[in-house]
Specification:
Helix content of chain A: under 10%
Strand content of chain B: over 45%
Helix content of chain B: under 10%
Largest interface: A-B, 27 and 28 residues
Radius of gyration of chain A: 13 Å
Largest sheet of chain B: 7 strands, mixed
Oligomer: heterodimer
Structural class of chain A: mainly beta
Largest sheet of chain A: 6 strands, mixed
Number of strands of chain B: 11
Shape of chain B: globular
Radius of gyration of chain B: 13 Å
Number of helices of chain B: 0
Strand content of chain A: over 45%
Distance between the termini of chain B: 37 Å
Order of helices and strands of chain A: EEEEEEEEEEEE
């Protein structure tokens, strides 16, 4: 069975500083990796995905993530944080990309301080 | 882009009543939809897979008689929480797969429905 770990429940960063939200995964076979963002009382919005190819994936709103196979990690990054980036971020993994087998991490609350 | 609409966004009901939540794919057909439950500050847990024209597939531990799912058309799935109790209070989210596709990368999520049972 696959699993996703987001070791930090909360990440605080000052506006304008770089941010990193950590994610590690465990899955059999080729991992399809995703990041989603959730604003209060809203559903999930897709940010970016890794399927194959370049280890650095660029997504929406200036976010990017780096796939590291040896460390089984897929950390979300942004060079310069905005207050509007404050939200709940979920990492997710799916073996072979199956929608039914999409497994989410526990989420990381990002707070960007003005 | 693909849009999934959930209704209602918020609902408050009395204990013992039933509540229906709708999930609609607005600009695409979805043979398969998924229903998730999210507790405060926790992750999404898949409850069931809704299949158009056939019975839903429930995840282990989810009571199918409690959470009735109907997927009568290619654009609509409904989740009915029957005889709701306060412990059913939660945020329910649906997602939809465009017909003919199965990959997680093409899932579109609804905005969620917050159920509060008094």
């Amino acid at each position: 069975a696959q699993s996703v770990a987001q070791p930090e429940d909360q990440v605080n960063v000052a506006e304008g500083n770089p941010l990193t939200v950590k994610c590690t995964y465990s899955v059999s076979g080729n991992p399809y990796l995703f990041w989603y963002v959730q604003y209060p009382n809203r559903g999930l919005q897709f940010l970016l995905k890794y399927i194959t190819g370049d280890n650095l994936v660029k997504g929406s709103y200036g976010f990017e993530a780096e796939f590291n196979k040896s460390q089984t990690s897929f950390h979300l990054k942004k060079p310069s944080a905005l207050v509007s980036d404050s939200a709940l971020y979920f990492c997710a993994v799916s073996p072979g990309g199956s929608a039914r087998q999409l497994t989410f991490g526990s989420g990381t609350q990002l707070t960007v301080l003005p | 882009g693909a849009v999934v609409s959930q209704h209602p966004s918020r609902v408050i009901c009395k204990s013992g009543t039933s509540v229906k939540i709708e999930c609609r794919s607005l600009d695409f057909q979805a043979t398969t939809m998924f229903w998730y439950r999210q507790f405060p500050k926790q992750s999404l847990m898949l409850m069931a897979t809704s299949n158009e024209g056939s019975k839903a597939t429930y995840e282990q531990g989810v009571e199918k008689d409690k959470f009735l799912i109907n997927h009568a058309s290619l654009t609509l799935s409904t989740l009915t929480v029957t005889s709701a109790h306060p412990e059913d209070s939660s945020f329910y989210i649906c997602s939809a797969l465009p017909s003919g596709l199965s990959g997680a990368n093409v899932l579109t999520f609804g905005a969620g429905s917050r159920l509060t049972v008094l």
